[in-house]
Structures are given as structure tokens and as C-alpha cells.
Design brief:
The structure holds two protein chains of two kinds. Chain A has helices spanning 3-24, 30-33; strands at residues 47-51, 58-63, 68-73, 77-82, 87-93, 99-104, 110-115, 119-124, 133-139, 145-152, 155-160, 164-169, 174-180, 186-191, 197-202, 207-211, 217-221, 228-233, 239-244, 249-253, 258-263, 272-277, 283-288, 293-297, 302-307, 314-319, 326-330, 335-338. By secondary structure, chain A is mostly beta strands. Chain A has a domain at 55-269: YVTN repeat-like/Quinoprotein amine dehydrogenase (Methylamine Dehydrogenase, Chain H, 7 Propeller), CATH 2.130.10. Chain A has a four-stranded antiparallel sheet, with no helix packed on it. In chain A, strands 2-3-4-5 form a four-stranded antiparallel sheet, with no helix packed on it. In chain A, strand 19 and strand 20 form a beta hairpin. Chain A starts with a helix and ends with a strand. By secondary structure, chain B is mostly helical. Chain B has a domain at 2-60. Chain B has helices at 2-6, 9-18, 25-28, 40-54, 61-75. The chains are: A mainly beta, B mainly alpha.
Chain lengths: 339, 101
């Protein structure tokens, strides 16, 4: 048997062993445990603000704190908004208008974006003369930048169409760690609340949990039947939520290393573009290709609400750190704040 | 190839960009890689990664699920979307008072 054939057989056998190990610890399902729990009551969120100013499709939004957020649009701009007043704090023109993602640093000092230029550009919001300038251009990916998230003012993680994720040192502009293993474009990433791990969702239909410091893939979650477009941590850091082109979202438990439940409905036939959990994780807000956001009871897997108001695809969604509101961004060029 | 791109969200984004952007052939060929296409090094890395992942210390679901549910149910009281009292002071809703400054 050739070396390659042997390796392929070994891979298949290891996958079977992992499946068996997961089954061995499955002595209770989520459905079993919540059989006696009531579904939460109907959740009705209202649009409180509409953020107007982008001239084209919005592809990404990210909250900096519970008031300021940054959005990225095909009009070639990053806009930092004061969501309370709807004022534009910064309107940053981009070198490349083909932007697919944006991120706000936890400190509030920087924002980042990237897209078809294959780069992650870092902007300093607190420059001495008050002008917002490019601070660093992180270039090394050989595919589009699908997502980026700051760990701190000197480290950022990116996911790319080149099937890898990268941890960067912003000061030197160098790659500290390359996270390779996905077999398809990486579409989305989320950082754990404790900043020790991150998760990535990809076009190979899997989600992977990575150890940020040693670069290892700790766990891989399958089950989706199409590309994973959106991913996020459950607020306690012990579970992962994914959203896919297969029209479903899934909840994976990190501790038992397995899928707990699927959020789907025969009436929903379009892909999930974005998702965010509420503060407690009891609600999952998911944006879909059909212009709506569905609100799911995460424990009972039932739809308990809908956010409708956009005239085109909801491309991005985010809940404030204090859980007080969520923001949706759409191809209709508007952002809406709901609670 | 192209049909894979169209049926994924990335495809929608890329279809949009393609209308007036000259893309590289690498983008067009961004297919799902199958195990058959990995070279020997990649396959070895894949096997090594699976060995590492198998080692993961799995908790019983009868322990992890009740703890997840307990954490969530305790947090629900602080969740503004589930506890209307928290949103009585809503920063995005103008109060009825008008203040002239």
C-alpha cells in the first residue's frame, strides 16, 4: 500500500474513533434535559435608530463598546457611528472598496478592515492630529479577507479565502501563527471570552476550535451540509453557534465535543448570513438571505421572533457587549438598532 | 467551480464584486479541497491533527448540558431582551423631556 493510501486510511480510522468517543460521552441530549422547560415568550424588538449614510451594500458591522460601532460598505467607506445619536464619528475612505469585514479593537483605539485586496488594514482612531490614518497593512494571505478580530491593540486574528487563519503582530506587521487545516475558504471567526482560543467556520462545512498560543486545532465540528458563513461563541465560552448556507444554525458543546441541537424550520430555505447570541445566550439572532432576522430560543430550538424591516439581505448582525441592543446591517445600505 | 461559488454566501459577495472587478483565477478556483488533493505533507499534518483532536478529554453530556442550561437560566434575569425592566432606561429612546442647552 502506498504511503498516501496508508495516510488516507489512517485519517478515516481516526475520524471513526472520534465519532465513537463522542458517542461514548453522550448519555443525555439537550432535548431530554429541556423537555420540561417552557419556550420563552414571543420576543418583539423594535427599530430604535436607523443609521443612514452608506451609499451601497453593507457587508459588516462590529460593536466597539455598547455605544459605538463600525460598519463597512461596498461604497468604500468605514463609518464609526455613535448609535445613540446616529452621528458619524469617523467616515474613513478605503483604498480598496471591495471590503468584506471590519472590526473594532476592544480598547476603542483602532479599527480594521479587509476584503478582496487580501489584506487587513489597521486604522488608528486616536492619532495626534485627529486624522484617521492607515497604521499598518497586514499582507500575506493569498485569498480574500473574510473576517478579522482584535485580541488587543497589538494582535489581530484574520480568516481568509486561502483556507487559513492568521494571528498577526500589528507593530511588526508579521504573521505570528498560521492556523492551517480547513479544506475550504474560511468565512468567519470568533474569539473566546477568555481570549485563549478562537473558532473558525469554513466552506468545508466544518467549524474548528484553535488554541491561539500553540496554533493547534483542538476540535473540529461537522454536521452542516453546506458552507458555514457565520460563527460565534455562546456567551459562557463553552459552546459554539454556527450559521450555514444549508439554512440552519447549530449549537456545538465544546466540553463534550459534539453537536447539541439544530435551529431549522421547513419554511426557511435560504442561507444564514450572520448570527449573534443575546447576553444570556438564551436567544440567538440570525440574519438570512431572505431579508429577515429570526430570533431563536437556543434551548428549545423554536423561533420566538422576527426582525423585519430591511429591504435587502441582512448581511451582518451584532449585539452590544452589555446586551442592550442589536445592530443589523443590510445590502439596502442601512444599519438598524433594535431592542 | 463557479456553481459552488454561486451557492455559497461567499459566492454572492464574489458575484457582486465580479461585476466590475477583475478577479484572479485563484478566486475562481477556490473549490472545496478533498483529501485526494492533499499532498503528502498536508496529509501527514491532517493525520497528526486528527490524532491531537482524538486526545481531547471529553466531558459527559449529562454534566456539560445541565451546567450550560444553569448558566443560561441564571443569566436570563440580566438579559435586556428577556427582562423588560432593564430596558426601562433605554439609551436609544429619547426621553420625553426636551432640554435646551
Amino acid at each position: 500500500m502506498g504511503e498516501m493510501e496508508q495516510l488516507r486510511k489512517e485519517a478515516e480510522s481516526l475520524k471513526d474513533e472520534i465519532t465513537a468517543a463522542r458517542k461514548a460521552v453522550q448519555d443525555l441530549t439537550l432535548q431530554d434535559h429541556v423537555a420540561g422547560t417552557a419556550v420563552v415568550g414571543r420576543v418583539q424588538l423594535k427599530t430604535r435608530k436607523t443609521l443612514r449614510g452608506h451609499l451601497s451594500k453593507i457587508y459588516a458591522v462590529h460593536w466597539g463598546d455598547s455605544k459605538l460601532c463600525v460598519s463597512a460598505s461596498q461604497d468604500g467607506k468605514l463609518i464609526v457611528w455613535d448609535s445613540y445619536t446616529t452621528n458619524k464619528v469617523h467616515a474613513i475612505p478605503l483604498k480598496s472598496s471591495w471590503v468584506m469585514t471590519c472590526a473594532y479593537a476592544p480598547s476603542g483605539n483602532m479599527v480594521a478592515c479587509g476584503g478582496l485586496d487580501n489584506m487587513c488594514s489597521i486604522y488608528n482612531l486616536k492619532g495626534k492630529d485627529g486624522n484617521v490614518k492607515v497604521m499598518r497593512e497586514l499582507a500575506a494571505h493569498t485569498g480574500y479577507l473574510s473576517c478579522c478580530r482584535f485580541l488587543n491593540d497589538n494582535e489581530i486574528i484574520t480568516s481568509s479565502g486561502d483556507c487559513t487563519c492568521v494571528l498577526w503582530d500589528i507593530e511588526t506587521g508579521s504573521q505570528k501563527t498560521v492556523f492551517a487545516g480547513h479544506l475550504g475558504d474560511c468565512m468567519s471567526l470568533g474569539v473566546a471570552p477568555d481570549f485563549n482560543t478562537f473558532i473558525s467556520g469554513a466552506c468545508d462545512f466544518t467549524a474548528k476550535l484553535w488554541d491561539i498560543r500553540d496554533g493547534q486545532c483542538r476540535q473540529t465540528f461537522g454536521g452542516h451540509e453546506s458552507d458555514i458563513n457565520a460563527i460565534g461563541f455562546f456567551p459562557n465560552g463553552n459552546a459554539v453557534i454556527t450559521g450555514s448556507d444549508d439554512a440552519s444554525c447549530k449549537l456545538y458543546d465544546l466540553r463534550s465535543d459534539q453537536e447539541l441541537i439544530t435551529y431549522q424550520d421547513s419554511g426557511i430555505m435560504c442561507g444564514v448570513t450572520s448570527l449573534a447570541p443575546s447576553l444570556s445566550g438564551r436567544l440567538i439572532l440570525a440574519g438570512y438571505d431572505d431579508f429577515n432576522c429570526n430570533i431563536w430560543d437556543s434551548l428549545k430550538a423554536e423561533r420566538v421572533g422576527v426582525l423585519s424591516g430591511h429591504d435587502n439581505r441582512v448581511s451582518c448582525i451584532g449585539v452590544t457587549p452589555d446586551g442592550m441592543a442589536c445592530c443589523t446591517g443590510s445590502w439596502d445600505s442601512f444599519l438598524k438598532i433594535w431592542n | 467551480m463557479l456553481h459552488n461559488l454561486k451557492h455559497s454566501y461567499s459566492g454572492y459577495l464574489l458575484e457582486d464584486f465580479k461585476q466590475s472587478f477583475h478577479f484572479t483565477s485563484k478566486l475562481l478556483n477556490s473549490d472545496l479541497i478533498t483529501m485526494d488533493e492533499l499532498d503528502e505533507t498536508q496529509l501527514k499534518n491532517h493525520v497528526d491533527s486528527l490524532k491531537q483532536q482524538l486526545k481531547f478529554n471529553r466531558e459527559k453530556t449529562s454534566v456539560s448540558i445541565p451546567e450550560l442550561i444553569k448558566w443560561t437560566e441564571e443569566k436570563m434575569n440580566e438579559d435586556p431582551f428577556l427582562n423588560p425592566d432593564i430596558l426601562k432606561d433605554n439609551p436609544w429612546v429619547e426621553s420625553s423631556k426636551c432640554v435646551i442647552t
